């Protein structure tokens, strides 16, 4: 006997719901072309669709992410077997990771999008949505955190990132690769992440910033940060190093008890305190900077903001952020 799975699709906007005009501009549609369509729904799935936002993904904010989290929590209470979120690709990885950090649920939550609008030749939106629904309806997807499904690949929200501005195969997981595939006959997982700590927050701490390091950098940008800053993430050079001229300004922030998280700006690898020279990782760690391993800058900032919003401070915050597997 086939069990019907009840899947809620929450549309938030993005290219997957946009249309291309005659002059080639891609713009939000007044009516989401995915709403009401059902020919792509896999067998054994009962689908409910809801447009919670209709936004280009650069318009997404942590406050809207939290609204999305609360809607997903309600969907589980209402008996949904899984939730799919359609999203613009520019900030998709940040929203997916926010969901991953804040949803304490066994229910599959899958985020997807498209690189080509609904009426472009070779549009990938319906295919990605169908694959995401298959994944959300699979029992194998339970207890795996938030997943990102694009181009027939299943990635963890924790490590996936957008790697190309226009290519349909843009979403990749550096270092580790995808955890599964969507095939014609189902969903296949090949690896699994260690469970992470979840923070079931209901509000957000603001003024958490992200700065990228560069050759010849000094303390100007750090000194320009507002007085009411709550946290800072730095994309550092190489394995986790900074130009020496940044150090006095960074120390001033630390003296004000501003938590600073450091990741590498490199596409692969993790930040480590291995270089012992002025501005090197060894010195930065001794100063009190938190090294975050395995995340890129935008996700480390999300993790820092979630941790602060959960009330974590001091060593508890450092333990939450400085964890290679969560």
From TrEMBL:
Domain L-asparaginase N-terminal as annotated: residue spans: 6-193
The Asparaginase/glutaminase C-terminal domain, residue ranges: 207-317
Keyword Protein biosynthesis: no
EC number: 3.5.1.1
Catalysed conversion reaction: L-asparagine + H2O = L-aspartate + NH4(+)
Keywords, in A-Z order: Hydrolase
Sequence similarity: Belongs to the asparaginase 1 family.
Protein name: asparaginase
């Amino acid at each position: 006997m086939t069990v019907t799975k009840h899947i809620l699709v929450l549309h938030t906007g993005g290219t997957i719901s946009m249309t291309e005009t005659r002059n080639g501009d891609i713009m939000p549609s007044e009516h989401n072309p995915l709403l009401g369509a059902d020919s792509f729904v896999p067998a054994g799935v009962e689908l409910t669709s809801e447009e919670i936002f209709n936004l280009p993904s650069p318009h997404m904010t942590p406050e809207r992410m939290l609204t999305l989290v609360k809607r997903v929590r309600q969907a589980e209470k209402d008996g949904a077997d899984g939730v799919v979120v359609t999203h613009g690709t520019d900030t998709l990885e940040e929203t997916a990771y926010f969901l991953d950090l804040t949803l304490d649920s066994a229910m599959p939550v899958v985020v997807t999008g498209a690189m080509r609008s609904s009426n472009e030749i070779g549009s990938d939106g319906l295919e990605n949505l169908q694959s995401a629904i298959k994944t959300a309806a699979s029992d194998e997807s339970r207890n795996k955190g938030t997943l990102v499904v694009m181009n027939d690949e299943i990635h963890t929200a924790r490590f996936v990132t957008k790697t190309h501005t226009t290519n349909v195969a843009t979403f990749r997981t550096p270092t580790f690769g995808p955890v599964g595939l969507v095939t014609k006959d189902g969903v296949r997982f090949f690896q699994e992440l260690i469970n992470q700590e979840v923070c079931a927050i209901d509000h957000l701490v603001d003024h958490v910033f992200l700065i990228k390091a560069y050759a010849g950098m000094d303390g100007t940008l750090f000194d320009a940060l507002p007085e009411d800053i709550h946290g800072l993430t730095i994309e550092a050079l190489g394995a986790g190093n900074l130009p020496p001229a940044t150090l006095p300004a960074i120390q001033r922030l630390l003296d004000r008890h501003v938590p600073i998280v450091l990741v590498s700006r490199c596409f692969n690898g993790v930040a480590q305190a291995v270089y012992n020279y002025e501005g090197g990782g060894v010195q930065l760690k001794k100063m009190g900077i938190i090294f975050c391993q395995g995340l890129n800058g935008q996700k480390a900032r999300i993790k820092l903001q979630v941790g602060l919003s959960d009330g974590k401070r001091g060593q508890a915050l450092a333990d939450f952020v400085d964890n290679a597997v969560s």
